[in-house]
User: Which sequence fits this backbone?
């Protein structure tokens, strides 16, 4: 990769991550699945067996079910991206997410802060996520009576 | 546009959005107005007639009045930007904003999360906002007694 | 600097800031110190004498002590960066940070929102922070009984 190709790859990867989190929050699970390699591995998924889900459609299905009925907000911030090869990159993304739902006459919420750590691959001309890990710095939660 | 021109346009648009939100939070309404085309249209402005304001100075005046006496924080995150022509782009920006004000011995606040959807134009060599829409994912509000 | 060199410098500076805040939150103080020039000046440090600390190791030591026992989250958002020379840039970074700690059976927290204003220098081929200022828009704080 020359300098310009690397700059383009950086922008493509940043836009990929922007699309990934927007698709979660808009519950566009087909769009979300298209952000991953077909054989992608997603770790740190607490309610999955072994904490790991394999396959882009499986990851999307798992998340769709986990977030059913929940309003979510995911935001990713300035990343650190390193290229290991022309078609391989490592990315660290600071993120925060909010989950908000109603139960027993309350609005309940969880806010989490941490980092995504990813391996990205360029497959058939498009950057996609090959491996996805989540580490957390802080989790806050609460509940408020609904009016 | 060649690759480098597109990369420069991307950076110009990102810096434009950074300036736009800083100008809101610093109540620099002349700086804010300069981020828009003279005939810009801003939608999703709930307290405006028809929810729409036309004209960069009118948009700035409207917002200055709406936010008078209110401390604000606006933050925009990793965007998706697509070029439709050398002088035209579409942008989707995740954002969150906080409004904080005092009333009746309380601090009251509102936190909102959503997306800006914009059309941007390059006019006289400078990218500006031509059309601005806001969609919301979540709104939180509360109040606390002042000490 | 030509256009491509400027674009690379922008990405280098963005990655520098991403690393700086990750190092704070992971309490990697050697990594944090490496983001600063040896003779860097950090202003707006409320508990330091005169509000100013000089020297990259001194800044790291000061912050390590100030944040000892505190969980932190720092997030930086879309910046405005301006080059004054091939080796000198000014940056404005919107940020929010959260401090969270336990005391007297409570979780106490502070959330602050504002801007970093920096002078950056390219020294020995690497961008580093030369001068660092913080201005605040809003500070929120609270406490909750631990379960």
Assistant:
């Amino acid at each position: 990769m020359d300098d310009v190709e690397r700059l383009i790859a950086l922008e493509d990867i940043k836009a990929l991550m922007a699309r990934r989190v927007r698709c979660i929050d808009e519950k566009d699970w087909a769009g979300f699945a298209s952000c991953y390699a077909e054989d992608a591995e997603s770790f740190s998924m607490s309610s999955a067996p072994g904490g790991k889900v394999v396959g882009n459609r499986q990851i999307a299905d798992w998340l769709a079910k986990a977030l059913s009925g929940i309003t979510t907000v995911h935001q990713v911030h300035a990343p650190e991206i390193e290229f290991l090869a022309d078609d391989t990159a490592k990315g660290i993304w600071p993120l925060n997410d909010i989950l908000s739902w109603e139960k027993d006459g309350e609005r309940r919420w969880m806010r989490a802060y941490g980092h995504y750590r990813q391996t990205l691959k360029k497959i058939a001309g498009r950057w996609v996520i090959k491996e996805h890990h989540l580490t957390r710095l802080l989790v806050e939660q609460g509940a408020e009576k609904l009016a």
In short: Chain A has one domain: 3-145.
